[in-house]
Amino acid sequence: MKEKFYKYIQELQDTITHKLEAVDGKSTFKEDIWERPEGGGGRTRVIENGAVFEKGGVNISGVHGELPESMQQYFGVKDANFFACGLSLVLHPKNPMVPTVHANWRYFEMYDKEGCIVDQWFGGGQDLTPYYLFNEDATHFHKVCKAVCDKHNTDFYPKYKARCDEYFWNTHRNEARGIGGLFFDYCKATDTMSMQDWYNYVTEVGNSFLECYVPIVEKRKYLSYTKRQRDWQEIRRGRYVEFNLVHDKGTLFGLKTNGRIESILMSLPPHVQWIYDHNPEAGSEEEKLLKVLKKPKEWT
Q: CA 154: distance to chain centroid?
């Protein structure tokens, strides 16, 4: 399973980066191959200063070795080894009318001292973070997510949409990071879902990413915007940074397993503002977004 999924994310990385380069039309992804001293490595691809994407990364990794002490305590195990692989992407467009997007699909195995698998699971999801809210864009993103989920189990979309709203919640701000999408984790074999079934589901979600996001980018990338709207984008990006550094489990796992810091912090935007006690004007488009972030909607 780990070899099959790693091969899948390698191919998916190629598919996504080639399409995004075509969408941008100016910049291309810089590739960085790296190795982890404890075992494994990855292939980081970063795009910067493009016509559409100010900064973005589409990264894959496959790492293995002894599970660090802090993570053994987290999982409640002793003397365990692990293998983890996944694709993680974040795209920060230049135009504030185009939303930031994040996606991640991953697979994890844990082994005992004899090398036998004692646990394995899939996780992942995809979510959208707009700066200006276009209802039809949010609806499109969620409808694609729902259609993929419904092919496998009609319970998946409402369950994983709710988990996404719950997970990407900036508790210290009492607001969502964005308008959500899907979030699933610890997807293990059960009486009704084999690991192959989970593989089929997760890969289909991964394959849906471009359909979720690219039509929105194409629709909004040429819209005009003002400096005030750009400032708002950078203020909201600050909230994105806060979530990733304070709450995100993936960032924590990478830092605690001696992950590659440049790849882990690839998710951070290049230009951000923190304005003291900033509040948008009543009745403005900015306030309209905040109201939705305070109370997640059902978009489908």
A: 23
